[in-house]
């Protein structure tokens, strides 16, 4: 509706078809599992973005996101939706990520864990990577069949007004994906989407 009102979309001659790419994370265990995004939510998100008032955290795709899931929901930490954008001369580049990872989150500048698997007292962290090593050394891979754990998907997008070829965009996507590897440990596990 938002795009159609602004005549934005794929030009098919007689009209412009407002195409919208989408993806999702599995978060049906959070809140009311019968609630679905609808046209009004999408429209409001477009208005908020247009007004430079998008929301970070537990909004939209970040509503049910969490990290540090190896020991189940009791030791999992809430995560959410984050974004960043810059402009250099006429070139604008932005990135947005819905962080719903199996692993822990680290500050890439100093290497410190900033979110993830909570310790026994839930007043600090313990390493998902170390817990994974312990579990695999004991040949106990039961976490892979735990439905609270196998529902992980971290989704991101890089948006720019710069002109690139398909090949160049592939390289940019690869570089952006490397950002996941710098910030999430462990990353790219068999239980990550």
UniProtKB/TrEMBL annotation:
Pfam families the UniProt entry points to: Peptidase_S58
GO MF term set: aminopeptidase activity
InterPro entries: ArgJ-like_dom_sf (IPR016117), Peptidase_S58_DmpA (IPR005321)
Gene3D superfamilies for the chain: L-amino peptidase D-ALA esterase/amidase (3.60.70.12)
Family (UniProt): Belongs to the peptidase S58 family.
Name this polypeptide is given: Esterase
Organism of origin: Brachyspira hampsonii 30446
């Amino acid at each position: 509706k938002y795009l159609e009102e602004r005549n934005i979309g794929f030009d098919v001659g007689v009209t412009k078809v407002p195409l919208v790419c989408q993806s999702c994370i599995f978060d049906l265990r959070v809140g009311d599992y019968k609630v679905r995004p609808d046209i009004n939510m999408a429209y409001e998100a477009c208005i908020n973005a247009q007004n430079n008032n998008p929301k970070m955290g537990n909004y939209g795709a970040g509503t049910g996101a969490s990290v540090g899931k190896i020991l189940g929901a009791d030791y999992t930490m809430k995560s959410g939706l984050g974004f960043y954008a810059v402009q250099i001369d006429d070139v604008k580049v932005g990135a947005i990520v819905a962080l719903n990872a199996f692993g822990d989150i680290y500050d890439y500048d100093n290497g410190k864990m900033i979110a993830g698997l909570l310790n026994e007292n839930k007043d600090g962290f313990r390493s998902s990577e170390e817990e994974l090593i312990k579990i695999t050394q004991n040949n106990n891979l039961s976490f892979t069949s735990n439905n609270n754990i196998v529902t992980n998907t971290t989704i991101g997008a890089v948006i720019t007004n710069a002109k690139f070829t398909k090949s160049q965009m592939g390289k940019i996507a690869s570089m952006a994906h490397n950002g996941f590897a710098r910030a999430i440990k462990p990353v790219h596990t068999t239980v990550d989407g």
